[in-house]
Design goal:
This protein has 376 residues and is of the alpha/beta class. It contains twelve helices and twelve strands. The chain has one domain (9-373): TIM Barrel, CATH 3.20.20.70. The strands form three sheets. Strands 3-4-5-8-9-10-11-12 form an eight-stranded parallel beta barrel, surrounded by six helices. A two-stranded antiparallel sheet has the order 1-2. It has a two-stranded parallel ribbon with strand order 6-7.
């Protein structure tokens, strides 16, 4: 059985061996931005999945750009050294590319880690004043803190911080950098009319609301080598009648293409606390498909409750997107790629220590995964 999912794809100067991506997943386990032993365990596990690309979690470009005290950062020499330790470990486990997502939380920062309730930090918990395009809280119902509207000087400093973090990523030898402009974080906040009520050059029209995301995008492009891969996670829809639309997203994608970005990953939502929308299999794939149709020369990655091999294959084979990214599916089953390869009658490299469990070597695989052998 042939499979588009397991064919290579060229992204800038980088070739992915297949179209499956481990999406960035916040682990909330860092110390002042520094990766720790948990990251060795988590990313080491993700490194041997066989996915074409592993993207490291949203990494803050400033200390106050983090979501929580546990978030990873790349704003200090200590952060860089800690990340190098983890990267060196992963490089010993895989030859497949490894990327990094750069981010700034904006008004969604200064919160607890999820398992502590994800509410905002109290006065005795080392909170920080958050920043946004306008003095509007993420959620007005639960006492969320109100950010201050970023000054022009602060905006300039944020752009520079993305550039400095990118320079650190270059030194670390990462294969890809992904700009985070979705999920209600700072660049998405500037992009959306729901959160951006500014009246200067950074607010109002779509052109003005795109200004900061594109300034950051250009700064990263200038600092990032052309022979590596550069992408962006963007928001396809705010799921609100007064929010950003797929047409806005398409306009942003076209500008990113002009700047020299190699791909976009199309997600959605999470901008305001009051938003409600239906989540189900492929629920964000139509957004990726709309971007792909409008900007066919841009590589597009789809996300959103993708967990079944046939489901992922259909998305890519039909041209709705060029790649798929999964997060919780890999937490649930780090061997997802191996099993999908079995399902389609192909193979991916397996660490020699685990070769005894490969389906051709272990008769028990037919008992453990009978569904993978029905079509072979």
């Amino acid at each position: 059985m042939s499979s588009t999912l397991f064919t290579p794809i060229q992204l800038g100067g980088l070739t992915l061996p297949n179209r499956i991506v481990v999406a960035p997943m916040c682990q909330y386990s860092a110390d002042d931005g520094c990766m720790a032993d948990w990251h060795l365990t988590h990313l080491g596990s993700m490194a041997i999945t066989g996915a074409g690309l592993l993207v490291i979690e949203a990494t803050a470009v400033t200390r106050h750009g983090r979501i929580s005290h546990g978030c990873t950062g790349l704003y200090s020499d200590r952060n860089e050294a800690a990340m190098k330790r983890v990267l060196d470990h992963c490089r010993r486990l895989t030859k497949n590319p490894i990327g990094l997502q750069l981010a700034h939380a904006g008004r969604k920062g200064s919160t607890h880690v999820p398992w502590e309730g994800r509410s905002f930090l109290g006065p005795t918990e080392d909170p920080w004043e958050t920043v946004g395009p306008s003095a509007l809280p993420y959620d007005t119902r639960h006492g969320w803190h109100t950010p201050h509207a970023a000054s022009l000087e602060e905006i300039k400093a944020i752009v520079e911080a993305f550039g400095m973090a990118t320079a650190r990523a270059v030194r670390l030898g990462l294969d890809a950098v992904e700009l985070h402009a979705a999920h209600g974080y700072l660049l998405h906040q500037f992009f959306s009319p729901l959160s951006n009520k500014r009246t200067d050059q950074y607010g109002g029209s779509l052109e003005n609301r795109m200004r900061l995301p594109l300034e950051v995008a250009r700064t990263i492009r200038e600092a990032w080598p052309k022979d590596r891969c550069l992408g962006a996670r963007i928001s396809g829809h705010d799921w609100h009648e007064e929010g950003a639309t797929i047409e806005d997203t398409i306009a942003l994608t076209k500008e990113l293409k002009k700047i020299g970005y190699d791909y976009v990953c199309v997600s959605s939502g999470a901008l305001i606390g009051q938003t409600r929308y239906t989540i189900g299999p492929n629920y964000q794939v139509p957004l990726a498909a709309a971007v792909k149709k409008a900007v066919p020369d841009m590589a597009v990655r789809a996300v959103g409750m993708i967990a079944d091999p046939d489901q992922a294959e259909e998305i890519v084979a039909s041209g709705k997107a060029d790649m798929v990214a999964m997060a919780r599916a890999f937490l649930d089953n780090p061997r997802w790629v191996w099993h999908a390869a079995e399902h389609f009658g192909t193979t991916v490299p397996v660490p020699p220590q685990y070769e005894r469990a490969a389906f051709k070597a272990w008769h028990g695989s037919k008992l453990a995964r009978p569904q993978n052998f029905e079509t072979q």
